[in-house]
Amino acid sequence: MDGVSGIDKTVESAAAAVADIGDGASIAVGGFGLAGNPIALIEALLAQGASALSIVSNNCGVDDWGLGVLLHAHRIRKMTSSYVGENKEFERQFLSGALEVELTPQGTLAEKLRAGGSGIAAFFTPTGVGTQVAEGGLPRRYDAEGRVALASPAKEVRTFELGGVPREFVLEEAITTDFALVHAATGDRHGNLIFNKAARNFNPLAAMAGRVCIAQVEHLVEPGELDPDQVHLPGIYVQRIVEVGDIEKRVERRTVRDASAQPRGE
């Protein structure tokens, strides 16, 4: 810290920012597909060597990018995710019993992170009622023979009247983690962050849920340079910030149309 208003949260490198993340830590990681992945922090964590990590993130990247690099190195013990379909190594480890997976509806995962960061212990939602999400039995871990070794438990379901209509809702507990790793387009030394487009989906929520939030930013500015009305996440949620510059960005799945196949008249 250099003493800017006494709350300069900048760290000199990604390696220094993640140095105290230990084996078995729980980490909320931002990103939506490959958009907004805190790749510099993930790679620094890979080099740092922490293992048996419990990760909460919308997805687990792909085989050679994002959280996929930690998974490939067998550093992740458990994933709490919504979508895991683009990662073949994820499938292999899950079905072989090497990885525990807690599948969570995407909106529910977002709200669990937000609730944790807001000090709300739990909430009721209609999402998942009448399915294994509420009734239990979703496989979380397999054994080496492909049998279910651990399944999800049943959750409390209650009936509330909403808009004059009684409906069933399932109780979901909030998520808090030891650390959070997030990516933002711009931040200031106080930790105020601005996200770009799809990177805003899960990064602010992950940041809120982590007791120690570490943010990588492409552009670091001085306090007072950001318009307060443009700030997406206030610095109260951020403990460390590191500038990484313009980093490589990847597209999870690129689909294009053959121009020669276009119908006449287009």
Give a brief rundown of this model:
The chain has 266 residues and is of the alpha/beta class.
Give a structural overview:
- With 266 residues, this protein is of the alpha/beta class.
- The chain has 2 domains: 4-121 and 174-243, Glutaconate Coenzyme A-transferase, CATH 3.40.1080; 122-140 and 154-173, no CATH class.
- Helix content is 20%, strand content 28%.
- α5 (106-118) crosses α7.
- The longest helix is centred in the middle third of the chain and has 13 residues, at 106-118.
End-to-end CA span: 58 Å
Output the CATH topology of the largest domain: Glutaconate Coenzyme A-transferase
Order of helices and strands: HEHEHEHEHEHEEEEEEHEE
What's the average pLDDT?
93
Specify the structural class. Answer: alpha/beta
Poorly predicted ranges: 1-5
Number of domains: 2
User: How many strand units?
Assistant: 13
> CATH class of the largest domain, please?
Alpha Beta
Approximate helicity band? 10-25%
Strand content: 25-35%
What kind of sheet is the major sheet?
8 strands, mixed
CATH H-level homologous superfamily name of the largest domain: Glutaconate Coenzyme A-transferase
Q: What is the architecture of the largest domain at the second tier of CATH?
A: 3-Layer(aba) Sandwich
Shape: globular
> Rounded to an integer, what's the Rg over CA atoms?
20 Å
Helical stretch tally: 7
